[in-house]
Design brief:
- The structure is a single chain.
- The protein is of the alpha+beta class.
- It has a domain of about 150 residues: Butyryl-CoA Dehydrogenase, subunit A, domain 3, CATH 1.20.140.150.
- The protein has five helices and five strands.
- Strands 4-3-2-1-5 form a five-stranded antiparallel beta sheet.
- It starts with a helix and ends with a helix.
């Protein structure tokens, strides 16, 4: 019962991780630049994401432009696009597989099959967490390095946006869920190895009687 509750808790974490992963991939605020200028009425907030760049004005106007050209983008944005999409796909596969392998569901067949499905889903969550953690770290590093660069003007410097933090938290949820699923399956398999099923052992009297019976057959 305890392992089933732990798996259910990991499944909830994985759901939050999947939704956060998809949101971080689609949100346009991976890096934000606020330019107030001489008058706060003309304040402009510029946001850049993986797929579009948006501008928000203090008057309430909001405009976005899509990034159609892939080859013109920096390498870290191209890598972030690829790895975040892979993270979303792997986490979705993990949700489907662990739904079959969890102990609280009636899918997946016998215990061994559910155990293997649960372990495979945990591996998918771990890979999805790694693929989601790498682009957020790389993107944050680029933002910080550009912010600390003295040759770049202040108007061109940015700060990490909400999508980066969402990506970090989602990757953490997926990693924790994957570790819980894999460790719960490993504990059950290890218990089966330590305590193998009892085999039928013949007593010494039974062995002697069988030996005597065999000798009489040969006489």
């Amino acid at each position: 019962m305890a392992s089933a509750s732990l798996q259910f808790f990991a499944f909830i974490l994985a759901l939050f991780g999947v939704f956060g992963d998809i949101a971080a991939t689609l949100l346009p605020n991976w890096k934000v630049n606020a330019d107030v200028g001489s008058n706060i009425i003309t304040a402009i907030t510029q946001m850049q994401g993986l797929w579009m760049d948006c501008t928000w004005y203090s008057t309430g106007m909001f405009s976005c432009t899509l990034k159609y050209s892939i080859l013109s983008l920096p390498v870290y944005i191209q890598a972030a696009r690829t790895t975040m999409v892979l993270s979303c796909i792997l986490s979705a596969f993990g949700i489907c597989i662990t739904t079959v392998g969890m102990k609280c569901t009636k899918l997946g067949g016998d215990t061994d099959s559910k155990n293997h499905a649960c372990f495979a889903g945990g591996v998918c969550f771990i890979l999805a967490g790694i693929f989601g953690l790498v682009p957020t770290c790389w993107y944050t590093r680029e933002i910080i390095s550009n912010f600390l660069d003295q040759t770049i003007p202040e108007s061109s410097k940015h700060e990490p946006g909400g999508a980066v933090y969402t990506g970090f938290i989602s990757a953490g949820f997926l990693l924790i869920a994957g570790v819980i699923f894999c460790s719960s399956c490993f504990k059950r398999q290890q218990g089966a190895w330590i305590y193998p099923p009892n085999k039928h052992h013949f007593s010494s009297t039974e062995q002697e009687s069988n030996a005597g019976y065999n000798l009489k057959d040969y006489v």
